[in-house]
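Data card: per-record layout.
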Amino acid sequence: MSLEDNKALVRRMLEWWPAGDVSGLDETCAEVYVLHARGKTLSGLDAIKARLRGHIGVFNERKLEIEDIFAERDRVAVRYVWSGVMKGSGRHVALQNMHIFRLAGGKIVEEWEEQDTQSLSEQTDG
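The structure for this 126-residue chain is written out next.
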């Protein structure tokens, strides 16, 4: 796959958030997907999809805007802002994320995630 193909694959993968549906991950991610986030490792596509469903369940009006995306060799780095309205409280939340994805065989196989969890805590507490 070309670098542009790799970036397009990551863009398609990130559509789960605004769509509120993780089924597209079957097309973009390998079953052996590994996520490294906040000092923890989560393995397997089913486990990742369960985690993401939990995020979807908390928010309405989900949006995602990619601010930067770069590709080199088998890696794609992306910086984006996701937002949503918390169910129950109606509070609007926006958070910046940065991820590095590793691709193999036309699928995403590994991800490293960095979130502004301080900002998330400040926006959701209270």
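Known properties of this structure: The first helix runs from residue 3 to 13. Residues 68 and 79 are 5 Å apart (CA to CA).

See the next section for split statistics.
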